[in-house]
Amino acid sequence: MKECILIGYGKLGKQFESYLRSEYPHLEFSYYDDIACNQGLINANPFINYTKIITGVKNSSVCISLGYKHLRLKSEIINYLPKECLLGFVHQSSFVDENANVGLGSFIYPKVSVDNDSQVGICCVLNTGSILCHDSEIGNCSFIGPNVTICGDVKIGERCFIGAGSIISNNVVLGDDVIVGAGSLISSNIPSNKKVVGNPFKFVDKLNVI
Question: Closest by alpha carbon to 62, among 29, 92, 38?
Fold first, then answer.
């Protein structure tokens, strides 16, 4: 592996790059990001051209480093790419049980715990200090904030955002595209496309997260 293509180079992209450089010090990077391109960053390309990387991806790895405001777009992009090219990262201070599975392209930040028989989907983010307990699942392209606790036998859909410090109780099911505000306690199932916040949680029409 000689090159990594970063799709998105905002704050999250810079974090991803830093983690990957620590793991692969000889890795060369190129970027697909409009701001980076406009600033004249070496090897930067306009974002809209990301579909062109498919033809040359055989010799490269790809990291989709778009933030939590672009989960749907992230989900669309992975449909363009062969999954085996997706590059992720697990921080050395984190614990991933040998019977757990972390999907390709997912990023596991420091001091995260992924317990036995848990499943993390493709291109997810588990931020610092988050806990995924036994037999739980996180769908593709979901973003788990810092210090989130996901208890046992929980199922979280695709493209979900779970705000910092939230707790998802045992046996709860969250549909796709659910947004959970910071510090919430989720004690029952949430249908797809809903926004919730609070302890006890309540449904809201607007939430200044995504």
Answer: 29
